[in-house]
Amino acid sequence: MFVVYLKVLLYEHACGGGFAESAVSPGILAEGFGMLRSCVVGFKAAGCEVVVVLAEELLRFNLLFEADCVVPVFSFSDAQQVILKACGEVDAVYVIAPETGGTLYALVKLVEQNGVSTFNSHSSVIGEISNKVNLYKKLKVNKIRTPKTLHVNCDAQNIRQSIVDVFSFPVIIKPVDGVGCGGLSFVENVLQVEDAVEKIAAEFDSENFIVQEYLKGDAISVSLLCTGTKILPISLNKQNVVLSAPKGVSCYVGGMVPFEHGKKQEAFQTAEAVVNCFSGLRGYVGVDLILTDVGSIVVDVNPRLTTSFIGLNRVAGFNFVDAIINATLNDILPSKPGFSGYACFSKVETPKFDVDFLDLLYSIPEIVSPPFPVYDSDVGCTLLSAEGNSLEQACYLLEEAKKYVLNIM
In this predicted model, what pLDDT tens digit does every residue of 193-247 receive, in sequence order? Predict the structure, then answer.
């Protein structure tokens, strides 16, 4: 699909100064850089001029960007000012940021208020979806299955009893507006409830949280392209998630794309029904589900780019970014969104290393994000992706790449 020449500003929160005043986890940085790097490649292939906002801390590394211009920032406030100034100089802006704390909503609204096009969903629907309590209420009204959910205030009396009255253990306790597995705890008994609540209060400065039933099944996501009026499911994606007790760290590890499953069409239909519940979802949208014995159950909706995009972008038989541009600006969806293979991708914890080692790591084709030696963490995190003619081959090549990286480090 031909795209008219555009000058585009890319802002990814982890890499663009969003955590400049605090330490970002190596895993979040790896996912963020992977999405940013993939987007730069896609926008350049679509014929766009690309401007990237980048934290000054990352400028000392060889990032292998094809961006036409990199704007350094020292803080999130700097980044907001850069975005505001760019609104008078670019044709469109793409914001890749979490919903937590209203971040994605505020940045997209800032761009909209300045009359510049975005490749994002409308800020109004981002705000509506970001609060999971509101999200589940809307889905329930539309007869879409979600986990049994209880909304609780951290200051409420008898929190333990409130949970026991509604659920059998184990349960999931997580923030109202968290993303990924941030602040999430797998709680096996009533004695762990207090630790789970304290974890959310410490990490999110939030007075509210939700409790959900634990569902057994396959954790998957559906990636969709939307124009605001038309919807096209693109891929079913396997999600590899680690659920930990309150004193551990729950995390999204990686995934496989495209993923074949006997309930694929059911998952696609459910994801389409979810998108139809909301006005203003555009571009790339992700819907997270659990495929259980009794059907597809929706656990989250992501009105933004997700990490699965990294794998999809490497095996799509079309320019995925091109398709996002056309969906948001031209009201056009791809006619035959096929794939040239399969991708397996995963975050891998590594030792912290010297910056001089980066060039060697970049020579490994499976490395999407190197383990940047930044901030105060004692470890690094790299994100690897391997592609093959089958999922089995892609997963085998990924495991070989993991071994090679860890051996040379």
Answer: 999 988 888 877 667 889 999 999 999 999 999 999 999 999 999 999 999 999 9
Tokens of residue 126, six digits: 């981002």
Q: Residue 358 corresponds to which tokens in the numbers above?
A: 């980066």
Distance, CA of 106 to CA of 118 (rounded, Å): 13
Beta-bridge partner residues of 231: 226
145 contacts: CB under 8 Å, gap ≥ 6: 270, 295, 296, 297, 298
The torsion angles phi and psi of 64, rounded to 5 degrees, stand at: 55, 35
Tell me the three state secondary structure of residue 36.
Answer: helix
**Is the separation of the CB atoms in 311 and 35 below 8 Å?**
no
Q: Which two tokens stand for residue 234?
A: 């693109």
| pLDDT interval class at 189 (50, 70, 90) | very high
Task: Encode pLDDT of 141-156 as tens digits.
Answer: 999 999 999 998 876 6
Which one, of 20, 196, 208, 228, lies nearest residue 122 by Cα? Answer: 228
24-28 contacts at long range (C-beta below 8 A, 24 or more positions apart): 24/375, 25/377, 25/381, 26/349, 26/371, 26/372, 26/377, 26/379, 26/380, 26/381, 27/251, 27/347, 27/381
Q: Reduced to 3 DSSP states, what percent helix, strand and coil does the chain have, rounded to the nearest 5? A: 35, 30, 35
Per the listing, tokens 């690897």 go with 384
Radius of gyration over every alpha carbon of the chain, rounded to an integer in angstroms:
20
pTM of the model: 0.94
Tokens of 115: 């009359």
